[in-house]
Amino acid sequence: MTVFFHLSQWFWRRIQQQYLKSWFKDDSLRRVFRQVQTLAFFPLDDVIEAFNLIKLNAPKNASSFIFYVEKNYVGSLSKKARFPVELWNLNERVKLDLPRTNNNIESWHSRINKNVNRNLTIKKVIVLFKNEQNSMETDLVMLFSGRKLKAVKSQVERREEELKNLLHDLQLSNLDMFLNGIARMISEKICNGKLKSTAN
After folding, report:
1. What does the pLDDT read at residue 67?
2. How far, CA to CA in Å, does 154 sit from each of 66, 157, 187?
3. Does the model's pTM come out above 0.85?
4. Is 188's pLDDT higher than 70?
5. Distance (Å, rounded) from C-alpha 56 to C-alpha 51?
6. Fewest beta carbons less than 10 Å away: which of 15, 22, 152, 177?
7. Integer distance in angstroms from the first to the last C-alpha of the chain?
8. Are the CB atoms for 92 and 47 separated by under 8 Å?
9. Residue 40: exposed, middle, or buried by beta-carbon count in 10 A (0-12, 13-18, 19+)?
10. Hey, how many other C-beta atoms are within 10 angstroms of the C-beta on 58?
11. Is 90 exceeded by the pLDDT of residue 51?
12. Distance, CA of 152 to CA of 157 (rounded, Å)
């Protein structure tokens, strides 16, 4: 799972609570939703400015959603957000090619849980940890030699590279274009069925 996935889920739940009936009819509401999602990719110092642009162009019927996002995720110059931007922002992670998911941790938990559900003795736990250490050391050798642990689909690599290029090219003079570009990428990903929990 990614921070972005959970952030989008929170936004989508809010939409479901208040706007589900108009969601399917109102393109401007869907556009605001996608643009708010893009805030996760803005540089930390530009999130409030980007949010203010979204807020300025948002239709009146999205005001409750905009207020929710401002109060809980963006904040303002006079009041901090409930969840600080630093907590959910992905800009630097994308630029530095750092993982944006915790899938590796979840797979480790899954491996451990399979063995924990058995009747474990001290001896079995020691063997389990030794096997896990061997696995981790093998992964480290692969990483230090420049290889990837998992093959990534070319479509995912292409989208990641496109996102990274957009972030590097961001200029505040083109803020609206950036908002719409990332929103388009998010929309394409959703339409391809990748983020069903935030989709139509």
Report:
1. 92
2. 36, 5, 19
3. no
4. no
5. 8
6. 152
7. 20
8. no
9. buried
10. 19
11. yes
12. 7
Read off the pLDDT of residues 105-162 as tens digits, 9 standing for 90 and up: 677 777 777 766 677 788 888 888 888 888 888 878 877 887 776 655 676 677 777 7
CA atoms lying within 13 Å on the CB side of residue 154: 0
Question: Tokens for 179?
Answer: 């908002």
Give me Rg for the CA atoms of the chain.
20
Structure tokens at 96: 């530095």
CB atoms within 10 A of CB 17: 11
Type of residue numbered 27: D
Q: Which amino acid is at 147?
A: R
- Render the chain in DSSP notation, one character per residue: -BHHHHHHHHHHHHHHHHHHHHHTT-HHHHHHHHHHHHGGGS-GGGHHHHHHHHHHHS-GGGHHHHHHHIIIII--SSS--SS-HHHH--HHHHHTT---B-HHHHHHHHHHHHHHTS---HHHHHHHHHHHHHHHHHHHHHHHTT--SS---HHHHHHHHHHHHHHHH--GGGHHHHHHHHHHHHHHHHHTTS-GGG--
